[in-house]
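[step 3/7] inverse_fold.run input=structure_tokens len=136
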């Protein structure tokens, strides 16, 4: 599971995860080079409105928000100016890239992108390119 994600949608993460910075990196995938957070694929959700997350409850259980409690580290090749955060409805800070809130998927194995272009919770989940645009 991704760093700092509670997995239950409650916004409560372990104190150790809250204190550790999430490391975003670019890695090769079948969709080109896309963002990974602590080794797990990072996704954007097309239903989000700007930087505000629309993924709560069961959605956040399946697609844990990438938490920013311990900060964010940008790996080589990432555009640091595109990194940011947004406050979730539960008060927790979520990592954004180019204004898009970022998520992991609870069943993705480390190093793989298995849920690109998945339609769930009334939106589409897409891997994220270096530019901040969704992967094709």
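[step 3/7] decode complete -> sequence:
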């Amino acid at each position: 599971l991704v760093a700092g994600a509670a997995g239950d949608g409650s916004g409560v993460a372990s104190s150790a995860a809250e204190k550790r910075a999430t490391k975003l990196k670019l890695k090769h995938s079948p969709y080109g080079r896309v963002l990974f957070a602590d080794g797990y694929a990072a996704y954007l959700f097309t239903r989000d409105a700007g930087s505000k997350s629309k993924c709560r409850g069961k959605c956040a259980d399946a697609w844990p928000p990438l938490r920013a409690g311990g900060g964010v580290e940008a790996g080589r090749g990432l555009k640091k100016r595109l990194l940011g955060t947004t406050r979730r409805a539960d008060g927790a800070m979520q990592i954004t890239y180019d204004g898009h809130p970022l998520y992991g998927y609870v069943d993705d194995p480390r190093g793989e992108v298995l849920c690109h272009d998945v339609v769930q919770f009334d939106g589409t989940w897409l891997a994220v390119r270096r530019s901040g645009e969704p992967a094709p």
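[step 4/7] annotate
Residues 3 and 17 are 6 Å apart (CA to CA).
The first strand starts at residue 22 and ends at 29.
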